Every structure is written in C-alpha cells, then in structure tokens.
Amino acid sequence: MRPRRNWHRTGRAYLLALIPLLFAVAYTLFLHAIRPILFDHAENYVVHEASFALYDVLTDTVYENRAEYANLVQFERDSEQNVTALKTDGILANHLKVQVSQAVYEALDELEHSKVQISLGSLLGPDLFGGFGPDFQVGISSLGYVQADFISAFTDAGINQTRHQIILEVTAEMRILTGLGGVDTEVTNQLVVSDTVIVGHVPEQYTYIDDTEQSLLGKINDYTP
Questions:
Q1: What is the DSSP letter of 71?
Q2: Of the residues 82, 133, 157, 177, which has the maximum number of CB atoms within 10 A of its CB?
Q3: Alpha helix stretches (DSSP H) within 65-89
Q4: Transmembrane ranges (predicted)?
C-alpha cells in the first residue's frame, strides 16, 4: 500500500508542476494569435494620425509658398499657342522638397507624444466586448525617413484640351510600438499643387506621362519635342 501512496504523491506533484506549464503555453499561444490583430488595429491608428499630420503640413507649406509653386513649371508656346516645351526649375523644386521634408519631420516628432489605448475586448470582438479587458498601449516612433517628390500627370480634359497637374507626394516611415513588439509602416500623402488646363495641341511626347508614379524632374525636366 505504501508504494501506491508514493505514486499518488508523485502524480500529484507532476500535475501541480504541469498546470503552470500549460498556462504558460496557452498564454504564449494566445499572445501569438492576438499579436497580428493588435498590429492591424495599431497600424490603422498610426496611419490615420500620420496621414492627417502629413496633409496639414502639405497644405500649410504649399499655401505659404504658393507663389513659388506657381513658378515650378513654365510652358513654352509657339505663335499658334501650341505647347512646345515644358521648363522645370530644378533648383526651386529641390528647395521646396527640402522645405516640405523638414516640416514633415518636425510634425512627426510631435506625433511621437501621442498614444492610444486599445482594449483586449476591442481586439476579440468590438461589437460585444469593446472597451472591456486590459489595455494595450500603442505609441508612434518616427524613423527619420521622409521623402518628398513632385509628380507630373497629363489627362484628357475634353476636345483639344489637356489637363496638367503637379502633385506633391510625401512618404514617411513610422514604427508602431506596442507591448507585444513593434512593426514598421509607411505613410504616403499627396496634394495637387498646380492644376492647369492646356488649350491647344500638346505634343505626343508629353502625353505618355500619365501615371502618378513618374517623377516630374526625372521625366519632363527641360523636355522638348
């Protein structure tokens, strides 16, 4: 009978030791499952806040320097008012890009002070458990990477009319900080800084620049037929 008691004691000891291990495994699996959901919610928050910050910087900077943006591209015409060349001021463009990048960098630095709490219930089921459970704190960290580019786009605006837009695009990289780790994300915003309807013939060499992935300076800098 004594060996049987020892077996019961040994089995109970193993069981007591196994319970914390099972809890640890379950907790690890739970965190592994909840982590991507938390990152999705956190990324939505960061992109939303950063997009508003970028847009505010773009509108303020462009408005303050609207006279300079108006001189960024000049159209040269012949005696019949047909466009013969597009002349871009490369020095002015680089100056404006540096100006915008610096303003965006400063705005993102201010954004690092903002934080948000996301409850566990909101991750599991916002309709039923929103606001319940412990909170995960989400923070923002700027990675110091900001890129500003001017983009040129030609589109058809009607009979014998072509619409030409200059778009300022700013891209910034951010890091999302949570209690379960961090992840990097990229935020991009655009603002039209010049919108011109060209009446008359536009050379075919220009009209191929019709996608907003092409750099203004790289594609039409002093481009002539």
A1: T
A2: 177
A3: 66-70
A4: 12-34
Spatial CA neighbour of 134 closest among 38, 24, 25? 38
| Residues constituting the chain | 225
Q: Which is it for the CA torsion 120, 125, 128, 131, positive or negative?
A: positive
DSSP string for 19-32: HHHHHHHHHHHHHH
Rounded to whole angstroms, the maximal C-alpha distance in the chain is 116
- Pairing status of strand 135-158 against strand 181-199: unpaired
Report whether 111 contacts 40 (CB < 8 A).
no
Gyration radius of the chain over CA positions: 29
Rounded to whole angstroms, the Cα distance separating 73 from 223 reads: 11
Instruction: Say how far apart CA 27 and CA 21 lie, in whole Å.
Output: 10
List of residues 6+ apart from 22 with CB closer than 8 A: none
Cα dihedral 200, 206, 210, 212 sign = negative
Are the CB atoms for 168 and 153 separated by under 8 Å?
A: no
Which residues lie closer than 8 Å to 98 by C-beta, 6 or more apart? 148
Sheet of strand 181-199: strand arrangement: 115-119, 135-158, 161-178, 181-199
Q: What is the pLDDT of residues 53-85, one digit of tens each?
A: 888 888 888 888 777 777 777 777 777 777 777
Residue 89: HSE in the Cβ half-sphere, 13 Å Cα cutoff: 13
